[in-house]
């Protein structure tokens, strides 16, 4: 079998030298796919299902188990670019067993939601951010890129066609899973010559059907999720499978999530598949600080994280809060907790919006994250959930909300 040329063979010596000389995030050498021709939304073909599914009762929905009638798919080929977008009945993919996605992990994805507002209209939440992130992920694994707003328009068409699946109940939504895979049939390791972008949709219920339930975390120090120069800031399927065993280990000891640490300093990075926030009272000044890890390449650029930071700057800073994207460590959280200065901690992500944290198990100690007995959330996590949901469900008209119909 002829060995495929390694990805780096085409890179000139000067480019490689530049790669070595400049910081990681400033280099962009991964657009290995041929210059992508744009997706043409005007070529959309819609084939409606002849067997519409019966709707489940909202309270019977289990996350990610039920799918809508249709899916969106767009194929890409290195020589011809993006083909006509198709909305078809939801169906199996048929792929040769040698397809590169199965062997080398050419896969990236997004998680976003469509919400029904009180007037019955459908809204997406900051969908351009998801498309920008999908483009960054795709580019990093030599898959083609696309125009974000064109994809938002096409996703809107899918959501609109399947809008009957979105329950008319607060807390419910349609979870959308845009996915891109390399589809070339080859065992050679190279940039895929063909790819497919598809979007499937799954109606989901509220993450906390009976109100917040604070979670207890186990700090994972024997495995790392991401590292400098790695791909932890991209939403690649390959980042997720290795996280399950540490998650199971934490669960076996009674913890709902694991907390990913990094380095000898034990920097706090992310919680399960959420970004992590801590509200800490400063030891010297007494000022309240909302802190989260910086986007240094090891942290996923959460859209909820960005929303929490924006809202904190908008609404908490005028009340005297400091908002920081900085490195912080487990010893710092432990000390703050011991001194009664750890006010609260929470994870942030599309699934739950915010997830309050009660305790963190670390080095045989239990770090108390500030919730009183009987409390399931601190005031900042609660306010954040309310503020973000107001914009997701269109209670507050805001540029973050994208009206579908
Ligand atoms: C590793 C990781 N961190 C953080 C997040 C939160 O990101 P978002 O707020 O965009 O859902 C997710 C979920 O997508 C994730 O998988």
Lay out the secondary structure.
Layout: H1 13-21, E1 45-46, E2 70-77, E3 81-82, E4 86-89, H2 100-104, E5 107-109, E6 112-116, E7 122-125, H3 127-140, H4 148-161, E8 173-182, E9 194-204, E10 215-220, H5 244-252, E11 257-262, E12 267-271, E13 274-281, E14 288-292, H6 303-316, E15 322-325, H7 330-338, E16 342-349, E17 353-362, E18 365-368, H8 379-392, E19 401-403
Parallel strand pairs: 1-4, 10-11, 10-17, 14-15
Antiparallel strand pairs: 2-3, 2-4, 2-9, 5-8, 6-7, 6-8, 7-19, 8-9, 11-12, 12-13, 13-14, 13-16, 16-17, 17-18
Helix pairs in contact: 3-4
The structure holds pyridoxal-5'-phosphate.
Residues 111, 270, 273-275, 300, 302-305, 348-350 line the site of pyridoxal-5'-phosphate.
Looking at this protein, list some descriptive labels.
six-stranded mixed β-barrel, D-amino Acid Aminotransferase, Chain A, domain 2, binds pyridoxal-5'-phosphate, about 20% helix, about 400 residues, alpha+beta, 8 helices, D-amino Acid Aminotransferase, Chain A, domain 1
Structural summary, described in words:
This protein has 405 residues and is α+β, with helices and mostly antiparallel strands. The protein folds into 2 domains: 31-206, Aminotransferase class 4, branched-chain amino acid transferase, N-terminal domain (D-amino Acid Aminotransferase, Chain A, domain 1); 210-402, Alpha-Beta Barrel (D-amino Acid Aminotransferase, Chain A, domain 2). 22% of the residues lie in helices and 27% in strands. It has 8 helices and 19 strands. It has helices spanning 13-21, 100-104, 127-140, 148-161, 244-252, 303-316, 330-338, 379-392; strands at residues 45-46, 70-77, 81-82, 86-89, 107-109, 112-116, 122-125, 173-182, 194-204, 215-220, 257-262, 267-271, 274-281, 288-292, 322-325, 342-349, 353-362, 365-368, 401-403. Strands 1, 2, 3, 4, 5, 6, 7, 8, 9 and 19 form a 10-stranded mixed beta sheet that branches. A hairpin with a 6-residue loop joins β13 (274-281) and β14 (288-292). The chain is globular and about 60 Å long. Mean pLDDT is 91; it is low at 1-35. It binds pyridoxal-5'-phosphate.
